[in-house]
Specification:
With about 80 residues, the chain is mainly alpha-helical. Helices cover about 35% and strands about 5% of the residues. The protein has one domain. The chain has a two-stranded antiparallel sheet. The longest helix is centred in the last third of the chain and has 17 residues. The protein is elongated, with a radius of gyration of 13 Å. The relative contact order is 0.20.
Length: about 80
């Protein structure tokens, strides 16, 4: 799949239509707050998560916001 088609697929995913994977960019912990080392999900409500590539999200207050951050991160990766 070309990069442009992947970007379109992720944009559709943002509207709940499809799920798109980008190689090397899985989200660790399914959007849960990770410990400072980035390895283990915690029970905290506010915090950051991490992409498989090492990019960390800002501190966010919900799993949905962290997943939205990751969708945007994948778009940014494909667009660059």
């Amino acid at each position: 799949m070309s990069a442009a088609k992947q970007v379109d697929a992720i944009r559709e995913a943002q509207h709940g239509k499809v799920s798109t994977r980008v190689p090397g960019h899985s989200m660790t912990g399914q959007g849960k707050v990770l410990d400072k080392a980035g390895f283990w999900p915690t029970r905290e409500k506010v915090g950051s998560t991490q992409c498989e590539c090492g990019e960390r999200s800002p501190e966010l207050d919900s799993n949905m916001k962290r997943r939205a951050w990751h969708r945007q991160h994948k778009l940014d990766v494909l667009s660059s």
